[in-house]
Write a structure and sequence with these properties.
There is one protein chain. Helices cover about 40% and strands about 15% of the residues. By secondary structure, the chain is an alpha/beta fold. It has 2 domains: about 5-45 and about 290-385, Aspartate Aminotransferase, domain 1, CATH 3.90.1150; about 60-285, Type I PLP-dependent aspartate aminotransferase-like (Major domain) (Aspartate Aminotransferase, domain 2, 3-Layer(aba) Sandwich). Helix 4 (about 70-85) packs parallel to helix 10, helix 5 (about 100-110) crosses helix 6 and helix 5 crosses helix 9. The protein is globular, with a radius of gyration of 21 Å. The relative contact order is 0.17. The protein binds pyridoxal-5'-phosphate. Pyridoxal-5'-phosphate binds near residues 38, 124, 201 and 235. Pyridoxal-5'-phosphate binds next to helix 5.
């Protein structure tokens, strides 16, 4: 088969591959615990269901405007004012069929072939591949230490004449770190000095713990949104737990939005008006669900940390947000892929190798699932790593053997 060189260079998402492995094991009746998946267990907010149901009931679901339904773009402008203290126009927003698509659309709109895009480790697995998809060159700022916040000097050192953009994700998948105000302010300053796009993936910005806040890039710029190179990405997948609705958005200068709209029109015409109606319901309805989710995730984090602290030699940095934790297991195995593989086959626990996120020696563990499951999952990991423990354990009537 003749495939394009670029297509052949793209790695499949390791998390989606692990989902598939877990599904196959479950199908065989194996009691798999999935600590790989980033998806809360909640039901969609009532207002979201009602809005979408009303539209569906009317039976009239047709193409809509390419940049999104006017009511949802208004709602996003309202959301931006509420959470970012920025008044923007609906024309500064574009809705896409997921935040993932919003990021891709932003990249394809601002990156020329051969342009460099700076990515900070640990990074979300899709960023380097998306940069490659637009014929850009990902430039990784390597992991520095367990605090998981890069040094601004390292970011500055990565800037070259070919740099076009920086992608930043805070609260961060996979580490759960929330970057400090000082760091975000320094990033904005750096981007403005070098005239770089600053793509802020804020998808987890409402999922922060212990009364803290995720500092927004807008706080540190004097520029109006239309003169700014900041592009904010957001969506309903994480804060509202509406992963299956596939709605995300970008907020940017009108000129950037216009280009993104032209491109989107050629690819999907428009995101589904049905799920846009649900997204509008989520943004304008009761926000209690977000707070409930945040509280649940904080309690899950605490439960996971308690269990992880009981494993000797594992170094854990307390996540300040998201629903991920990135403990350092290098004392057990420097290869995160080998360790993750062993844990899947011996302990029937799905973890994601840190290598995929630029964090070799670490495993990404999600605490978005049931609390009992995550406690059981970490206990199984502890058992699998403890040579002095029993050689076999029973999960229900299912026996698993270490060696
Ligand atoms: C950092 C980050 N950005 C974006 C996304 C994608 O969100 P969506 O479901 O809207 O595509 C994810 C999902 O895992 C994510 O972790």
């Amino acid at each position: 088969m003749k495939l394009s060189q670029m297509a052949r260079s793209i790695a499949p998402s390791p998390t989606l591959r692990l989902n598939e492995q877990a599904r196959l094991l479950r199908e065989r009746g194996e009691p798999v615990i999935h600590l790989g998946v980033g998806e809360p267990k909640n039901k969609a907010p009532r207002a979201a269901i009602e809005r979408a149901s009303a539209l569906l009931e009317g039976g009239y679901v047709k193409y809509g405007p390419t940049a999104g339904q006017p009511a949802l773009r208004e709602a996003i402008a309202g959301y931006t004012e509420t959470f970012y203290g920025r008044r923007i126009a609906p024309e500064n927003t574009i809705v896409s069929a997921s935040a993932k698509q919003s990021i891709y659309n932003a990249l394809v709109s601002v990156v020329n072939p051969g342009d460099e895009v700076i990515i900070l480790a640990p990074y979300w697995v899709s960023y380097p591949e998306m940069v490659r998809l637009v014929y850009g060159v990902p430039v990784i700022v390597p992991l520095r230490d367990a605090a998981f916040e890069p040094q601004i000097a390292a970011v500055e050192a990565a800037v070259s004449d070919a740099t076009r953009a920086i992608i930043v994700n805070s609260p961060n998948n996979p580490s759960g770190a929330v970057y400090s105000s000082a760091f975000v302010a320094a990033l904005v300053d750096l981007a403005e000095r070098h005239d770089l796009y600053l793509i802020m993936d804020d998808i987890y910005h409402q999922l922060v713990f212990d009364g803290s806040e995720a500092p927004s890039a807008y706080r540190f710029t004097q520029r109006d949104v239309d003169d700014s190179t900041i592009i904010v990405i957001n969506g309903i997948s994480k804060s509202y737990g509406m992963t299956g609705f596939r709605i995300g958005w970008a907020v940017a200068a009108r000129q950037v939005v216009e280009v993104m709209t032209a491109i989107q029109g050629q690819i999907i015409t428009c995101p589904s008006p049905l799920t846009q109606a649900a997204a509008e319901g989520a943004l304008t309805g009761s926000q209690e669900i977000v707070e409930d989710l945040r509280r649940t995730m904080q309690a899950n984090r605490d439960a996971m940390l308690d269990e992880l602290h009981a494993i000797p030699g594992v170094r854990v940095t307390r996540p300040a947000g998201t629903f991920y934790c990135l403990p350092d297991f290098s004392a057990y195995n420097p290869s995160s892929e080998a360790l993750s593989d062993m844990l899947l086959h011996k302990a029937l626990v799905v973890t994601v190798p840190g290598k995929a996120f630029g964090a070799e020696g670490h495993l990404r563990l999600s605490f978005s699932g049931n609390r009992e499951d995550l406690i059981e999952g970490i206990r199984r990991i502890k058992w699998a790593l403890d040579p002095s423990g029993p050689n076999e354990i029973y999960i229900g009537d299912h026996k698993i053997v270490r060696d």
